[in-house]
Amino acid sequence: MADRAKTADTEDLQRRLEVLERRSARSDRGSAMEAAFWALMHNLFPEEARTHMRAAGREQLLAARAYLDHWIAKLEHREEENGRRHENIEIS
After folding, report:
1. Where are the alpha helices (DSSP H) in 1-92?
2. Which residue segment(s) compose the domain that 66 sits in?
3. Number of domains in the chain
4. Is the pLDDT assigned to residue 25 strictly greater than 70?
5. First-to-last CA distance in the chain?
6. Three-state DSSP state, 1
7. Tens of pLDDT along 26-42?
């Protein structure tokens, strides 16, 4: 009976180890894919192009911020009209 329990425990541990190894392999592939992407970016695009791409990405994020700030302000204004008050906290 004790041998069967040890065998069952061993098989359970083996299955759990296989699951962890598959999970680790997936995350390693993601990291490898990201590294390959950036290597490709460096090989295909000159520094000046990459600089412009970073600036464009920053501008897109600033546009998203402006969009969100606009709708947050509208929500706050609506709530103030309904008698609710909020404290504004500056985030920089």
Report:
1. 2-44, 47-81
2. 46-92
3. 2
4. no
5. 66
6. coil
7. 666 667 888 888 888 88
Structure tokens at 3: 């041998």
52 and 66 in a common domain: yes
37 and 59 share a domain?
Answer: no
Clarify whether residues 50 and 90 are in a common domain.
yes
Whether 76 and 86 have beta carbons less than 8 Å apart is answered as yes
How far apart, in whole angstroms, are the C-alpha atoms of residue 20 and residue 26? 10
Position 64 pLDDT exceeds 90? yes
Model confidence, pTM: 0.47
> Residue 87 gets which letter from DSSP?
-
- The reply to whether 77 and 57 lie within a common domain is yes
Kindly state the average pLDDT of the residues 53-72: 95
Instruction: Say if residue 86 is in the same domain as residue 62.
Output: yes
Residue where the block lists tokens 């501008």: 59
